[in-house]
Amino acid sequence: MTASHTPILAYDSSDEYRPEPVPEPQAPAWRDGSVRIGIHTSIAGGFADSLESARKLGCNALQIFSASPRMWPRVGARIAEIDAAEFRAKRAELGLGPLVIHANYLINLATSDPVMRVRSIQAYHDEIVRAVALGADYLVVHPGSCCGKAPGRGKTMEQGIRDVAQALRQAARGVRLCAKFGDPRDCRLRLLLENTSGMGMAIGSRFEELKAILDGAPELPLGVCLDTAHAFHAGYEIHTEAGLAATIAALERTVGLSRVAVLHVNDSKTPFASHVDRHEHIGRGHIGLEAFRRILNHPSLSASAATGRPGRAFLLETPIDAPGDDRRNVRRLWDLVGVPVKQAPRAQNGFSMMPRARRSEPAARPNSKRPAPSRARAAKG
Fold this sequence. Notes:
Blueprint: E1 36-40, H1 47-56, E2 61-65, H2 81-94, E3 99-102, H3 114-134, E4 138-141, H4 157-171, E5 190-194, H5 207-216, E6 222-227, H6 228-234, H7 241-253, E7 260-265, E8 267-268, E9 279-280, H8 289-297, E10 313-316, H9 325-336, H10 375-380
Parallel strand pairs: 1-2, 1-10, 2-3, 3-4, 4-5, 5-6, 6-7, 7-10
Antiparallel strand pairs: 8-9
């Protein structure tokens, strides 16, 4: 009998299965280098309504709260997935971005009170969870206050800074912010520290303090939100051409301009270096219209990939003293950056976030000494 032989097939490397490579994540459309202008919009009518408000005011970016900013929400407060999904879909439909969430004003990550510290860390953790659910790009928080100016009173500034960095790390535990742990370059949510006016015992009025906090938690995707009014209150001369250049140089020397992702664009009711936080309509305060023209058009503060930071947004937190103030402030920013009405997002004539109940009140005169409504009150409008 003739023995049968099984033929031996030659190895061909082309026969091997090769899975398709995972595609590189695409940069969101709002990082295309275009000007991004927005305002803080109200969530009083629901999260989806805040997006409609931004559209009707002529914005292509926005900031919101994820819960009441002046009340402690219950621990673990979440957003129903059906509401979060509706919000994400609506935002994609309208093409708005970036989306910034401002954290609760009661959060104090530098406090010396152990009960307040636990509560603040938990509240900030919940803010992070809600921001991720909504698909936010940035979450802004004030560092907090702690440090007594009299000898023996409170912590030192160095201790307060270390405590803020540690609180940020604790609050971020259990939430996957980045595709790879410890690599802040590829993250879906960035945590931004806002500079402060230097009122009382607040941390963060000096850029060096913000840098020290960033250095204290290098594994987190941290950045900075620069508030123009707060910088002016703290003694940075952004209202002059030379002062703006010096401020930008100080930012680059400390936190680095690439980490300044958002600018809160607010004029000031109070004078230079007052350390008193009062916002005013653009061009009506002590900073002035020409100063804002320089700020908004400075190459280093732009959204250009060549000179600035792609996707950097200019967001208003200005008061609403009369119907349409919000819409007029947004339009003023578009005018200052030189975008004609026909090329800017179209605003809806007559729309304002001011509640109808307040529309019968007399409007504040431009030079009125009356304090501006709080940001929370204005945003709820």
